[in-house]
Structure formats: structure tokens, C-alpha cells
Design goal:
Length: 272
């Protein structure tokens, strides 16, 4: 049971369904490997398995908390990708393209955010990134957030007044309903505009340190770094509300489920 979730029958039921989904994925990957082996391609194929977000549970998917940011990244192939190793350093899927280019002997184009994983995999360096920037604007509903993670600290800033977990951005399920019955405040109480966590002492991000005087210098440094990154990347949030792409279907923030009142005639004034 993930420590950030309650040990309740409803949650265990969702976890069981998740485990079954993982089993099916594992079976599917096995079929791909068998096909590569059958056709003599396994020995010179780099197989990469990754995902786009954390597990679909409250406090994970569609948040900037670690359970929502941490994803699978498994690689197997010739030379340094023979397997049997776990690399704990912070990396991003943005690092995959530079990795593939280096493996092909090609120079990366200018402006890439990622870095090749090869120095890390080869043991030439212990880390690639001093910090990683993270963001969310839309999931089902509009919930603009930006964040910054280092090995020790996490900083999150919200750009709209939202509850701690925005209901339409939480996938429907038994766990979501458990929180509605037993801890409704997570869907009701407003999230602080700034969150700061000491991941070394608080890995499950339970204690917000943004107003703690002892962490004022950390907050100032991370806030400044995030603002500079937003300016450098010309983040549209700097100009205010970010409209969805033309024709996109959006769920209003006030509803319970991700598929309620979905519309392509989005009104930002009703969802500020």
C-alpha cells in the first residue's frame, strides 16, 4: 500500500485493480520481447518503457506531488543497457531525445531542455540535473500550477484558487469516494498559493514550510528560480489565464467528475 494513501478496503480494491493492470502491461511487454527475439532483433534493440504520469489516485496523477511526477523508466539494450541496475538520480523524459541522438552519433539541436542519460548510465557522473521544473495547466479541468524540484526540496506555486485536490482532476474510483466520505476537506479547503516541502525529512509532502522562517531563504531562492524559468520559457501564465486550444473539451472546476458538463465552449470567467 503506498504510504500516502489510507489503508482502507476501498483503497485496497483500487490498488488490486492497479496491480492487475500492471500485470497485463508486463505480459504485453513480454510479448514484444518474444517477437524481437524470434526475429533476431533483440540483441541490437534498445527497448524503452515509460509512462506519462504517476498512478491515477488522489494526491498523485494531475498533481505536482511526487506520486504524480514519478513515472516508470526502464531501458534494456546493448552495451550499458544490459539491465540489472537501478539509477536513483533525478531524470526526465525530456532526457530521452538527447540520449537517442547521442546513441546515433548525432548532435542535439539547440534549445533542448533534456540531457543525454549516457554519462549517468556509464557511471561518469552521479547526477544530471540540479533541479527539474514541472508544470500542470489543464487535466480535465483548469488547475494551473508550476513547480521546482531538487534532490531535497519541492516548491509548488498555484495560479488559481483551487481546493487541495480538484475533484474533476481526480479519476473516479473507490479511493476518491473514500476521501469524499471520510476526509471531504481535501476537496473543499483551498490549497495554499505556495507550497514548500523538505523531501529529506518529509518525503510524502505533508508539512508545508512556505511560512516557516527557518526556510525563508530556501523559499526565496526556489521562488526566484521558478520565476526566471517561466520568463525564459515565455510561460503564458505570466500573462494571466491560459485558454484551452480551439475546440478542446474542458470540464468546469466546480463539478465532481472529469466527465461532467464537458464543453468545448469554455468560459474562463465562470472558472476563475
Amino acid at each position: 500500500m503506498p504510504p500516502f494513501l489510507p489503508d482502507a478496503p476501498e483503497v485496497r480494491r483500487d490498488i488490486a485493480e492497479l496491480n492487475e493492470a500492471v500485470r497485463r502491461v508486463d505480459e504485453g511487454v513480454g510479448r514484444i520481447i518474444e517477437a524481437l527475439q524470434k526475429h533476431g532483433l533483440w540483441g541490437n534493440t534498445l527497448l524503452v518503457f515509460t509512462t506519462d504520469h504517476g498512478i491515477a489516485f488522489p494526491g498523485a496523477k494531475a498533481t505536482l506531488f511526487d506520486p504524480g511526477l514519478e513515472i516508470a523508466l526502464l531501458m534494456h539494450g546493448p552495451d550499458e543497457f544490459q539491465g540489472g541496475r537501478v539509477v536513483e538520480a533525478m531524470v526526465s523524459n525530456a532526457d530521452l531525445m538527447p540520449t537517442f541522438l547521442e546513441l546515433c552519433g548525432l548532435e542535439p539541436p539547440p534549445g533542448l531542455d533534456g540531457k543525454s542519460l549516457l554519462p549517468l548510465v556509464r557511471g561518469q557522473v552521479e547526477s544530471l540535473h540540479e533541479r527539474l521544473f514541472v508544470e500542470l495547466t489543464y487535466h480535465a479541468a483548469y488547475d494551473p500550477m508550476r513547480g521546482l524540484r531538487t534532490e531535497r526540496f519541492k516548491y509548488i506555486r498555484g495560479f488559481a484558487r483551487r481546493p487541495f485536490w480538484l475533484p474533476p482532476n481526480v479519476d473516479n474510483g473507490y479511493t476518491k469516494d473514500w476521501y469524499r466520505q471520510h476526509r471531504p476537506e481535501v476537496y473543499r479547503d483551498l490549497r495554499p498559493r505556495e507550497l514548500l516541502f523538505d523531501l529529506g525529512q518529509d518525503p510524502w509532502e505533508r508539512r508545508n514550510l512556505a511560512e516557516e522562517p527557518a526556510y525563508a531563504s530556501v523559499l526565496e531562492e526556489m521562488r526566484g528560480a521558478l520565476e526566471r524559468w517561466m520568463e525564459e520559457t515565455e510561460d503564458p501564465l505570466l500573462k494571466g489565464h491560459v485558454p484551452p486550444p480551439s475546440g478542446a473539451r474542458v470540464t468546469p472546476s466546480h463539478v465532481w467528475g472529469p466527465e461532467e458538463e464537458v464543453t468545448d465552449r469554455y468560459n474562463p470567467d465562470a472558472d476563475a
